[in-house]
Amino acid sequence: MKLYVIDLGKIVMMNDNPVVDASSEDVESAIPIQAFLIDSPVGWVLFDAGCNLEGMDGAWPEEIRANPYVYEEGMTIERRLADIGVALSDVKHVVLSHLHLDHVGCAPMFPDATWYVQRDEYDRTMADYKAGTLDMFHLQCDMDAICSQDRNWHFIKGDEPYELCEGLTIYDFGPGHSFGMLGLRVDLECGTFILAQDTVYSAYHFGPPAQFSGAMVDEQGYLDTIEFIRGLADETNATVIFGHDMDQFHSLTLSDKGFYE
Ligand SMILES: [Zn+2]
Questions:
Q1: Fold topology of 2-251
Q2: pLDDT at residue 36 is higher than 90
Q3: How far is the CA of 102 from the centre of ligand 1 (A)?
Protein backbone atom coordinates (compact mmCIF):
# COMPACT_ATOMS: atom_id res chain seq x y z
CA MET A 1 0.00 0.00 0.00
CA LYS A 2 1.08 3.59 -0.63
CA LEU A 3 0.01 6.81 1.04
CA TYR A 4 0.19 10.12 -0.82
CA VAL A 5 -0.17 13.42 1.03
CA ILE A 6 -1.81 15.92 -1.29
CA ASP A 7 -1.24 19.66 -1.02
CA LEU A 8 -4.36 21.55 -2.11
CA GLY A 9 -3.20 25.02 -1.10
CA LYS A 10 -4.06 26.98 2.00
CA ILE A 11 -6.58 29.18 3.71
CA VAL A 12 -5.05 32.47 4.81
CA MET A 13 -6.40 33.56 8.15
CA MET A 14 -6.94 37.30 7.91
CA ASN A 15 -9.02 37.56 11.07
CA ASP A 16 -8.73 35.70 14.31
CA ASN A 17 -7.34 32.26 13.78
CA PRO A 18 -8.92 29.59 15.94
CA VAL A 19 -6.57 27.00 14.50
CA VAL A 20 -3.06 28.16 15.22
CA ASP A 21 -1.52 28.78 18.60
CA ALA A 22 -2.32 32.39 19.31
CA SER A 23 0.45 32.58 21.89
CA SER A 24 3.08 32.10 19.22
CA GLU A 25 3.71 35.27 17.24
CA ASP A 26 5.79 33.94 14.37
CA VAL A 27 3.34 31.23 13.43
CA GLU A 28 2.36 31.37 9.78
CA SER A 29 -1.11 32.77 9.54
CA ALA A 30 -2.38 30.20 7.08
CA ILE A 31 -3.60 26.65 7.37
CA PRO A 32 -2.75 23.89 4.90
CA ILE A 33 -5.56 22.22 2.97
CA GLN A 34 -4.58 18.60 2.69
CA ALA A 35 -6.10 15.42 1.36
CA PHE A 36 -4.73 11.88 1.22
CA LEU A 37 -4.74 9.27 -1.50
CA ILE A 38 -4.12 5.61 -0.76
CA ASP A 39 -3.19 2.98 -3.30
CA SER A 40 -4.80 -0.05 -1.68
CA PRO A 41 -5.92 -3.58 -2.52
CA VAL A 42 -9.51 -2.26 -2.78
CA GLY A 43 -8.45 0.44 -5.24
CA TRP A 44 -7.70 4.13 -4.91
CA VAL A 45 -9.05 5.63 -1.71
CA LEU A 46 -9.31 9.39 -1.20
CA PHE A 47 -9.51 10.84 2.31
CA ASP A 48 -11.13 14.28 2.11
CA ALA A 49 -11.52 16.50 -0.89
CA GLY A 50 -10.44 20.07 -0.10
CA CYS A 51 -12.29 23.27 -0.92
CA ASN A 52 -14.86 24.12 -3.57
CA LEU A 53 -12.86 25.63 -6.46
CA GLU A 54 -15.61 28.19 -7.02
CA GLY A 55 -15.69 29.19 -3.37
CA MET A 56 -13.66 32.35 -3.78
CA ASP A 57 -15.54 33.25 -7.00
CA GLY A 58 -18.72 33.68 -5.04
CA ALA A 59 -19.94 30.19 -4.12
CA TRP A 60 -18.83 30.79 -0.53
CA PRO A 61 -20.54 33.39 1.64
CA GLU A 62 -18.63 36.61 2.15
CA GLU A 63 -17.67 35.89 5.78
CA ILE A 64 -15.94 32.69 4.68
CA ARG A 65 -14.20 34.40 1.74
CA ALA A 66 -12.79 36.89 4.24
CA ASN A 67 -10.21 34.16 4.99
CA PRO A 68 -9.22 33.44 1.40
CA TYR A 69 -8.55 30.03 -0.04
CA VAL A 70 -5.37 30.29 -2.10
CA TYR A 71 -3.97 27.67 -4.41
CA GLU A 72 -1.45 27.76 -7.18
CA GLU A 73 -1.90 26.35 -10.64
CA GLY A 74 -1.53 22.60 -10.46
CA MET A 75 -2.84 22.38 -6.91
CA THR A 76 -6.31 21.20 -7.83
CA ILE A 77 -7.25 17.71 -6.79
CA GLU A 78 -7.67 16.72 -10.44
CA ARG A 79 -4.14 17.83 -11.31
CA ARG A 80 -2.58 16.36 -8.20
CA LEU A 81 -4.14 12.98 -8.92
CA ALA A 82 -3.22 13.20 -12.61
CA ASP A 83 0.40 13.82 -11.59
CA ILE A 84 0.26 10.48 -9.74
CA GLY A 85 -1.30 8.86 -12.79
CA VAL A 86 -4.79 8.63 -11.31
CA ALA A 87 -7.95 9.81 -13.08
CA LEU A 88 -10.88 11.08 -11.04
CA SER A 89 -12.90 8.06 -12.16
CA ASP A 90 -10.21 5.72 -10.80
CA VAL A 91 -11.08 6.69 -7.22
CA LYS A 92 -13.47 4.06 -5.84
CA HIS A 93 -13.77 5.18 -2.21
CA VAL A 94 -14.05 8.69 -0.82
CA VAL A 95 -13.81 8.89 2.97
CA LEU A 96 -14.96 12.22 4.41
CA SER A 97 -13.60 13.14 7.83
CA HIS A 98 -16.58 15.50 8.18
CA LEU A 99 -18.63 17.78 5.95
CA HIS A 100 -16.94 21.14 6.53
CA LEU A 101 -16.13 23.38 3.58
CA ASP A 102 -12.39 22.63 3.46
CA HIS A 103 -12.95 18.84 3.36
CA VAL A 104 -15.88 18.20 1.02
CA GLY A 105 -15.55 20.96 -1.59
CA CYS A 106 -14.35 18.72 -4.42
CA ALA A 107 -16.09 15.51 -3.37
CA PRO A 108 -18.71 15.93 -6.13
CA MET A 109 -15.88 15.32 -8.63
CA PHE A 110 -16.14 11.66 -7.63
CA PRO A 111 -19.79 10.86 -8.42
CA ASP A 112 -19.29 7.12 -8.88
CA ALA A 113 -17.27 6.46 -5.74
CA THR A 114 -18.65 5.09 -2.50
CA TRP A 115 -18.72 7.94 0.03
CA TYR A 116 -18.03 7.18 3.69
CA VAL A 117 -19.30 9.58 6.32
CA GLN A 118 -20.05 9.44 10.02
CA ARG A 119 -23.77 8.79 10.49
CA ASP A 120 -24.51 11.69 12.87
CA GLU A 121 -22.50 14.13 10.77
CA TYR A 122 -24.62 13.24 7.75
CA ASP A 123 -27.97 13.21 9.55
CA ARG A 124 -27.47 16.48 11.38
CA THR A 125 -26.01 18.30 8.37
CA MET A 126 -28.78 17.14 6.07
CA ALA A 127 -31.43 18.09 8.64
CA ASP A 128 -29.89 21.56 8.97
CA TYR A 129 -29.64 21.84 5.18
CA LYS A 130 -33.31 21.04 4.76
CA ALA A 131 -34.29 23.41 7.59
CA GLY A 132 -32.05 26.21 6.31
CA THR A 133 -30.07 26.24 9.57
CA LEU A 134 -26.59 25.18 8.44
CA ASP A 135 -23.76 26.45 10.62
CA MET A 136 -20.97 28.57 9.12
CA PHE A 137 -18.68 25.63 8.28
CA HIS A 138 -21.30 23.46 6.54
CA LEU A 139 -22.02 25.37 3.36
CA GLN A 140 -25.13 25.57 1.26
CA CYS A 141 -23.11 25.39 -1.99
CA ASP A 142 -21.45 22.14 -0.91
CA MET A 143 -24.72 20.56 0.20
CA ASP A 144 -26.42 21.66 -3.04
CA ALA A 145 -23.67 19.92 -5.02
CA ILE A 146 -23.70 16.82 -2.84
CA CYS A 147 -27.48 16.51 -3.00
CA SER A 148 -27.67 17.19 -6.74
CA GLN A 149 -27.66 13.47 -7.43
CA ASP A 150 -27.92 10.15 -5.67
CA ARG A 151 -24.75 9.13 -3.87
CA ASN A 152 -23.56 5.75 -2.85
CA TRP A 153 -23.27 6.52 0.87
CA HIS A 154 -21.74 4.21 3.41
CA PHE A 155 -22.47 5.38 6.94
CA ILE A 156 -20.04 4.71 9.76
CA LYS A 157 -21.08 4.63 13.38
CA GLY A 158 -19.89 2.80 16.46
CA ASP A 159 -16.81 1.66 18.32
CA GLU A 160 -16.00 -1.18 15.97
CA PRO A 161 -13.48 0.14 13.42
CA TYR A 162 -14.43 -0.45 9.78
CA GLU A 163 -11.75 -2.19 7.75
CA LEU A 164 -11.74 -1.14 4.11
CA CYS A 165 -9.05 -3.77 3.68
CA GLU A 166 -6.23 -5.13 5.77
CA GLY A 167 -4.17 -2.20 7.02
CA LEU A 168 -6.69 0.48 6.05
CA THR A 169 -9.24 1.20 8.75
CA ILE A 170 -11.90 3.87 9.26
CA TYR A 171 -12.56 4.98 12.85
CA ASP A 172 -15.67 6.69 14.13
CA PHE A 173 -14.16 9.46 16.26
CA GLY A 174 -17.62 10.67 17.27
CA PRO A 175 -18.65 14.25 17.99
CA GLY A 176 -16.15 16.96 18.86
CA HIS A 177 -14.98 19.39 16.20
CA SER A 178 -18.20 18.63 14.30
CA PHE A 179 -21.24 16.38 14.82
CA GLY A 180 -19.37 13.22 13.89
CA MET A 181 -15.77 12.78 12.77
CA LEU A 182 -14.05 10.00 10.87
CA GLY A 183 -10.36 9.19 11.03
CA LEU A 184 -8.29 6.85 8.91
CA ARG A 185 -5.55 4.50 10.08
CA VAL A 186 -3.06 3.39 7.46
CA ASP A 187 -0.66 0.56 8.32
CA LEU A 188 2.32 0.69 5.99
CA GLU A 189 5.64 -1.12 5.94
CA CYS A 190 7.30 2.10 7.07
CA GLY A 191 4.92 2.41 10.01
CA THR A 192 1.37 3.31 10.98
CA PHE A 193 -0.24 6.67 10.29
CA ILE A 194 -3.36 8.01 11.96
CA LEU A 195 -4.94 10.64 9.76
CA ALA A 196 -6.81 12.72 12.32
CA GLN A 197 -7.85 15.66 10.16
CA ASP A 198 -9.74 18.22 12.25
CA THR A 199 -10.29 15.89 15.18
CA VAL A 200 -6.87 17.32 16.10
CA TYR A 201 -5.94 20.57 14.34
CA SER A 202 -2.25 20.64 15.25
CA ALA A 203 0.51 19.36 17.52
CA TYR A 204 -0.29 22.24 19.86
CA HIS A 205 -3.89 21.03 20.20
CA PHE A 206 -2.75 17.43 20.68
CA GLY A 207 -0.61 18.36 23.66
CA PRO A 208 -0.51 16.76 26.14
CA PRO A 209 -2.43 18.33 27.57
CA ALA A 210 -5.03 18.60 24.80
CA GLN A 211 -5.99 22.17 23.94
CA PHE A 212 -9.40 23.38 22.88
CA SER A 213 -9.76 24.74 19.39
CA GLY A 214 -12.03 27.56 18.29
CA ALA A 215 -14.42 25.22 16.51
CA MET A 216 -16.11 22.56 18.65
CA VAL A 217 -19.66 21.33 18.96
CA ASP A 218 -18.93 18.86 21.79
CA GLU A 219 -16.10 19.80 24.17
CA GLN A 220 -16.05 16.52 26.10
CA GLY A 221 -16.27 14.49 22.90
CA TYR A 222 -13.40 16.54 21.49
CA LEU A 223 -11.18 15.82 24.51
CA ASP A 224 -12.18 12.15 24.69
CA THR A 225 -11.30 11.64 21.05
CA ILE A 226 -7.88 13.21 21.43
CA GLU A 227 -7.14 10.86 24.34
CA PHE A 228 -8.41 7.90 22.29
CA ILE A 229 -6.09 8.88 19.44
CA ARG A 230 -3.20 9.29 21.87
CA GLY A 231 -3.81 5.77 23.18
CA LEU A 232 -4.13 4.30 19.70
CA ALA A 233 -0.97 6.07 18.55
CA ASP A 234 0.97 4.76 21.57
CA GLU A 235 -0.34 1.25 21.02
CA THR A 236 0.53 1.17 17.32
CA ASN A 237 3.60 3.42 17.48
CA ALA A 238 1.83 5.59 14.94
CA THR A 239 2.51 9.01 13.51
CA VAL A 240 -0.54 11.24 13.92
CA ILE A 241 -1.05 13.61 11.01
CA PHE A 242 -2.98 16.63 12.22
CA GLY A 243 -5.65 18.46 10.22
CA HIS A 244 -4.15 21.92 9.81
CA ASP A 245 -0.62 22.01 11.18
CA MET A 246 1.55 24.05 8.81
CA ASP A 247 4.80 23.09 10.55
CA GLN A 248 4.03 19.39 10.39
CA PHE A 249 2.73 19.78 6.84
CA HIS A 250 6.08 21.23 5.73
CA SER A 251 7.83 18.21 7.26
CA LEU A 252 5.79 15.65 5.29
CA THR A 253 6.70 14.09 1.97
CA LEU A 254 4.06 15.57 -0.33
CA SER A 255 2.74 13.82 -3.41
CA ASP A 256 4.82 15.87 -5.85
CA LYS A 257 7.96 14.54 -4.14
CA GLY A 258 7.01 10.98 -3.22
CA PHE A 259 4.88 8.80 -0.98
CA TYR A 260 4.92 6.61 2.10
CA GLU A 261 4.78 2.83 1.77
ZN1 LIG B 1 -10.58 21.67 8.28
A1: Metallo-beta-lactamase; Chain A (3.60.15)
A2: yes
A3: 5
